[in-house]
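Lab meeting prep.
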Amino acid sequence: MLKGYVFSKQLFENPIFALFINTFLNGENGVSNNYLNGMEVTYSGSTLTVNSGAVCIQGRFLGEDTSTQIATGTNNAYCKLVIEIDLDKQNTESQLNQASYKVITSASGYPELTKTNIVKNVSGIYQYELARFRTTASGITDFQDMRTFLDFDSIFEEIRQQYGEVLQELEDELASVVDGSDYLLKSAGGTVEGEIIANGGVRGDLTGNVTGNVSGSSGSCTGNAATATKIQTARSISLSGDVTGSVSFDGSKNVSMTTNLANVAVLSGTISGPADSNGSYSKTISYPAGYNQSNCIVIGWALELSNSATIWGTGMTLDSGGYVAGAMPTSISMRNDNINFKIRNVYVSSDGTVFSIPLTGTYSYKIILMKI
């Protein structure tokens, strides 16, 4: 059944009032420090006296209108003077049965208090400690005042102070906006004119276009950038096949690649006398690594007399007089273990007459091999 507590002709019952007070006090218990004598506890011999005052325990107010004396006994014991609230008992119009002073004892140490959640359950026992002491045959010893205090003036002052701090913080935040007119509204969105600086980073998904400079990194960044000065991981660009080469490229600068002919080798050196009986020079040349008689052929050669200006590429000279003259190979023999290179000086006159002239001097040569 639905009940009304703050409605006309409806009762504002004590459990709801206790809930309100306890919530307001954030669950704190204590004696009012500005009402009567603050429930001060004194002792003489084996008797305690609780003076006038008021206390709030779990949202329920209790008052001592004059004073109450409590006999503690003379046994050797560890004791606590408490106000006990027992909501399992029933009050009458003339008698408060749900709250009383009580001395709880233990022979070995100060006893634990019972603290049932009487606000939530509206039942059970809750004990609030006023003082602790020891009893002996000669009276009370080791007395300790255990009251806590509720200063309502301080409570309201703290509320006022916290409210002021929050208000000042809001005013400072608003003052940092350049013209005070543009605000981001979390629920409705909005447009911000000017610069947004997020020193702590930006979280969440961004959609739409982003222009300008973006720094930092993210492992979950997707999409395409309009421009970039450098890629995150450099890539290797390689050529394979008849021409080989490799270069690393990260987009930050131009690169150039040095290439090599993968299946071509150039043999170079010099060849000189003495000449054989035919006036020729011969030389035995080793194959370069990876080349042999069965996997390569000769695709070019060149000769030059070391002390002349003979043109590379022919090994001969040809002038407008109509003759050919120069040293040329008479054989380049591909043998099992080596290459035999033989050259001879040849002269062809304009009328077709061929002469062989013995070689003299030293010749530089180049022989070009290609794998097949």
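Slide two material, second protein:
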Amino acid sequence: MEQYYDRVGRIFDIQRYSVHDGPGIRTIVFLKGCFLRCKWCCNPESQEFKIQKMVQGGKEKTVGYDISVRELMEELAKDRMYFQRSGGGITLSGGECLAQPEFTEALLRACHDYGFTTAIETTGFAKREIIERIIPHVDYVLMDIKHMDSAKHEAFTGRPNELILENAKWIAANASSMIVRVPTVPTFNATAAEIRDIARFANTLPGVKEIHLLPYHRLGTDKYTGIGREYTLPDILPPERGMMESLVEAAKSVCDLHVQIGG
């Protein structure tokens, strides 16, 4: 096979039978490493590229391992039947797949060799040359737009948002398909005004037809203790259904896009 099948990357999980991360039934590959440090992140073990130890349920496990594209494709090919029947495929998540661009590009190319559709979940925080390398191999881009105010974005994620917003414009103009996703977090962006700001921006992006508001949840908080870190949003509760519905209406009031709760 082509040389890119020998490219090695670092992942920490493979999740099968997902129906929320792109069309059809999908298998998600979770990559290690991320440029952001979102306070609400439900996969804190994904943020560091290094291999870590994490305690869960009183047992210690290793988080992260290296694998070649060839080895990984052998595993992903086991799900071919589900992809063919549902129109599904492979989704790269993390972490941030753009933090391992050589491996990501090679894996996406191999997925297309196998006839699998590809999707990425991304923050869009990467140099433009990396974006331009990766996007041609992606069928569906699921991109987070977390906030329009750069200072507040940096306070909650560790990074400003200017690069992300500029990349969002380029991706929307050049990707086969892009959906804007908004992790909706109380105290950060879960107000009508802040959601309207994001919706107005999304409405300017060529080809974007959908906004998904993803309600904040606390499912990964125990992982912080497991890797020896403090969860810094301990008093934040998930938004109630009524609040999410009002935020959907706020977004709809300023854009022509389809707006929904969840992916």
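Talking points for slide two:
The radius of gyration is 18 Å.
The chain has a mean pLDDT of 97.
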